[in-house]
């Protein structure tokens, strides 16, 4: 069994956000009516390349309850009608927004969409009334440019750990 590095990153001030414009080809839509099966689909579609499988093996009822709670929001990015990526925001305590999942569909990686979509996710997190902090975690199994993208947008690492993978 190998090891992975997990980085925890945060942004405590919206002015720290070094935004990139959302690419003109992307249309980002919030799924205002929670649909658990849509989230499962997006998780598999985007996560397949990055070994996202934890949620698929876990308690499906707990996952559904989280998605259907008022503390959870889902956004889908479309490029000319095709799903290009998505992100989920989760704020169970009312002040700390986690960018729970963020990613692009494999066919859309390398087209210059990630920085703008991440900026849109950060903007949505800060626009959520009451937000005091935005955070996320990533790991060494993620896309090689992921950590750098998060840091370029203004996130700073506040913790790091080594874990089995």
Automatic annotation (TrEMBL):
Domain N-acetyltransferase: 26-165
Coiled-coil annotated spans: none
Origin superkingdom: Bacteria
Molecular function terms from GO: acyltransferase activity, transferring groups other than amino-acyl groups
CDD domains named among the record's database cross-references: NAT_SF
SUPFAM superfamilies noted in UniProt: Acyl-CoA N-acyltransferases (Nat)
Matches recorded under PROSITE patterns: GNAT (PS51186)
Record protein name field: N-acetyltransferase domain-containing protein
Organism annotation: Kushneria phyllosphaerae
